[in-house]
């Protein structure tokens, strides 16, 4: 994302759910269940938004099966009921685009704050605000 203008942000960032997903995944990979819980959304909303993020190359999903008897292990025990698990992970592209988006938001916010401080006649505002590069 090379945009310098908030109006030219990719469509991926037009959804608060997708922004929340990227924010959460920027910290660590998450299971479907945990990501759904953090985003407080339905299965349909999860499916729609993860699909969009995957299509854009911002996240990947990792699927594996865990036995019912040993849910914490990523291996299959013979004769056990198998439970599929999906984890999501942010890609390098996704992380970079998310950081660019956050920096753009910070830059726009700081510009607005500087304008308001200038209009009020305040001095030394530049040292009080961090302009994101």
TrEMBL record:
Pfam families assigned to the protein according to its UniProt record, in alphabetical order: HTH_34 (PF13601)
Superkingdom assignment: Bacteria
Gene3D superfamilies recorded: Winged helix-like DNA-binding domain superfamily/Winged helix DNA-binding domain
Domain Winged helix DNA-binding per the UniProt entry, residue ranges: 17-76
PANTHER family: BSL7504 PROTEIN
Name of the protein in its database record: Winged helix DNA-binding domain-containing protein
Highest classification ranks of the organism: Bacteria, Bacillati, Bacillota, Erysipelotrichia, Erysipelotrichales
């Amino acid at each position: 994302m090379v945009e310098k203008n908030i109006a030219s942000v990719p469509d991926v960032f037009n959804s608060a759910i997708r922004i929340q997903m990227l924010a959460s995944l920027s910290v660590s990979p998450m299971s479907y269940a945990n990501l759904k819980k953090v985003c407080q959304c339905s299965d349909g909303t999860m499916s729609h938004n993860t699909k969009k993020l995957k299509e854009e190359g911002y996240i990947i999903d990792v699927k594996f099966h865990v036995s019912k008897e040993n849910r914490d292990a990523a291996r299959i025990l013979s004769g056990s009921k198998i439970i599929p698990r999906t984890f999501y992970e942010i890609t390098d592209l996704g992380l970079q685009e998310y950081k660019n988006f956050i920096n753009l938001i910070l830059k726009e916010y700081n510009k607005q704050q500087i304008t308001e401080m200038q209009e009020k006649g305040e001095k030394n505002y530049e040292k009080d605000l961090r302009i994101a590069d």
